[in-house]
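JOB MANIFEST
job_type = single_chain_structure
chain_count = 1
residues = 300
[input]
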Amino acid sequence: MNEEKITTSANKKLSPEEIKRVKGLGCLQDKRYDDIFNIRVITGNGHITTDEHRAIADAADKFGNGQITMTTRLSMEIQGVPYDNIEKTIAFLGEHGLMTGGTGAKVRPVVSCKGTTCQYGLIDTFALSKKIHERFYVGYHDVVLPHKFKIAVGGCPNNCVKPNLNDMGIISQRIPKPDVEKCRGCQIEKSCPVHVPKLVDGKLYIDPEECIHCGRCKGKCPFGAVPEYQNGYKIYIGGRWGKRISHGQALTRIFTEEEEVMAVIEKAILLFKNEGIAGERFADTVKRLGFEYVNEKLIG
């Protein structure tokens, strides 16, 4: 492993206004120095090409200390960039189609799990998260909100990216539609990871309140007792991690079309913008306005 390059500081004192300005560009001050910054590079959903990787590595060598870290939002940070190199770094990254940012009271970069390739993934999470990123991170970049707004996309109910701990989380669903007349009592519950299907009076029963809609029972019944499924999306609102943790609440309907999901995200962002109070997270807005009110606004 290469040793970290020595970061050289000119001890240049910067005004609070200038520090705030460059932070808005995705450049966070290193607390150890007055004029050294870590520059956040947006990946969209942690999914970037090898050419983009090389460009980030080149930028770290040319303008920083040769080190790169990763954030919890799947962005990458070029470490140890002197203040005088900030504009050069941003320009270099821009030449390779990369942007910096991911800070401030705005829609933050979207994260997703690897549902596109994961054996349990029910949707193309890369494609959906990229679509959300382009429309709401890029498209709403100049929209100032009461606080940051984080969105996560999960490809199945395993919840690997913790969608329900984001301001808005989307989780793919596959809802079984049993045909009990075809059931011969062969205990399909063995195929369920949470053991929800039961035999009631010798027939299959799947409790809709207990089923997590993972679709793992699909094709497991040799007699076709679960022939059909409804694909959809469960949307959580008002999640948050950090100093104060809030578990998001699921909206009271399952959405079956991708464009419905996009519409609900837009409604949520605009509701937060128009009815949120400066400094409060979306979880606080939902609590203050009442879940029932916000739920009706988003699904109505």
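[summary]
DSSP finds seven helices and eleven strands in the chain.
The mean pLDDT is 94.
exit_status = 0
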